[in-house]
Amino acid sequence: MGIAVVDSTLFTSVDPVVLAGSMCGACGAHVFPAMDSCPTCSSLDVTRVGLPTEGTLWSWTTQHFAPKPPFRTDEFAPFSIGYVDLGPVIVEGWLVGKTQWTIGEQVNLVLAKAWTHEGAPVFTFGFEAVT
Ligand SMILES: [Zn+2]
Prior knowledge:
Layout: E1 11-14, E2 17-24, E3 30-31, E4 46-50, E5 54-63, E6 79-85, E7 90-96, E8 106-117, E9 120-129
Parallel strand pairs: 7-9
Antiparallel strand pairs: 1-2, 2-3, 2-4, 5-6, 5-8, 6-7, 8-9
Bound molecules: zinc ion (ZN).
């Protein structure tokens, strides 16, 4: 049995974890999640690509209250959300492992447990500090 993820279309690979973005053949824009047309120039010449797995933290915040449905967690604890600059694109994601961050900090893409379903973990993507 493979690794269960919240949405398999977000990834080109889960082991090792790589996010799936799209790259425009006309203007070079990268987007995440992948789209069928370019949001910058409307071209349909887009290719699904694996995005870089390391980046720098561009901005972040820590939430001290539980997210409302349909978001779900097993048990609430304060969590951080950030924008990570992967080079060709900035990706919004969960920042895992701590709740105090520094803009410009180096982070790596990881799988992070989103919730438990029938006793098994379901993963989404997140970023953790490079140590
Ligand atoms: Zn384009």
